[in-house]
UniProtKB/TrEMBL annotation:
<keyword id="KW-1133">Transmembrane helix</keyword>
<keyword id="KW-0472">Membrane</keyword>
<feature type="domain" description="Inner membrane protein YgaP-like transmembrane">
    <location>
        <begin position="1"/>
        <end position="66"/>
    </location>
</feature>
<feature type="transmembrane region" description="Helical">
    <location>
        <begin position="12"/>
        <end position="29"/>
    </location>
</feature>
<dbReference type="InterPro" id="IPR021309">
    <property type="entry name" value="YgaP-like_TM"/>
</dbReference>
<protein>
    <recommendedName>
        <fullName>Inner membrane protein YgaP-like transmembrane domain-containing protein</fullName>
    </recommendedName>
</protein>
<dbReference type="Pfam" id="PF11127">
    <property type="entry name" value="YgaP-like_TM"/>
</dbReference>
<keyword id="KW-0812">Transmembrane</keyword>
<feature type="transmembrane region" description="Helical">
    <location>
        <begin position="35"/>
        <end position="59"/>
    </location>
</feature>
Length: 68
């Protein structure tokens, strides 16, 4: 898998995942919505760690800076 996510995109995903987890554990998001938020947070974290987003490849997006 060739990286297709840039640094800014990865940071934004980490922040969004942290917010979703915090909202779940402070019981702001509960029930089904809370579980969905945790699943999305896990996916965001995983894609940020490996710098690859499958949806980006499907739609032809690439935010990774070009290496010279």
């Amino acid at each position: 898998m060739k990286p297709n996510m840039g640094g800014t995109d990865r940071i934004i995903r980490f922040i969004a995942a942290a917010v979703a987890v915090a909202l779940y554990f402070t019981e702001t998001l509960t029930g089904t919505l809370g579980i969905i938020a945790l699943v999305v947070a896990a996916i965001f974290t995983l894609t940020s760690v490996i710098s690859f987003c499958p949806l980006y490849s499907i739609f032809g997006l690439n935010t990774c800076p070009v290496k010279k």
